[in-house]
Design a protein that fits this description.
By secondary structure, this protein is an alpha/beta fold. It contains 4 helices and 5 strands. The strands form 2 sheets. The chain has a 3-stranded parallel sheet. Strands 2-3 form a two-stranded antiparallel ribbon. A hairpin with a 2-residue loop joins strand 2 and strand 3. 10% of the residues are buried.
Length: 87
């Protein structure tokens, strides 16, 4: 697919994009299988500061998607990174 040839990476918001009402939206597993097959990096982002990586991983595994720690960015983690770099 030509449209994927120029994609260098993707960022997905989790709530309302991948999940609605605690359930994965249709196509989540297929989407991430395609990204892995095409070696397109991605990050899952959430502004829910209370979610840990383990909770995010568990939710994604329920949808049939394995993720690594470097593929998740929570607002708490983003804040910690920013503070470490600027203070």
């Amino acid at each position: 697919m030509k449209q994927f040839s120029e994609v260098q990476g993707l960022i997905f918001d989790m709530d309302g994009v991948l999940w609605r009402g605690g359930k994965p939206l249709p196509g989540v597993r297929t989407t991430f299988s395609l990204l892995r097959a095409r070696q397109i990096p991605f990050v899952l982002a959430t502004n829910n500061a209370t979610q840990t990586f383990e909770e995010v991983r568990s939710r994604m595994e329920e949808a049939g998607v394995s993720i690594e720690q470097n593929e998740v960015l929570t607002s708490a983690l983003g804040t910690a990174i920013h503070l470490k770099q600027h203070i």
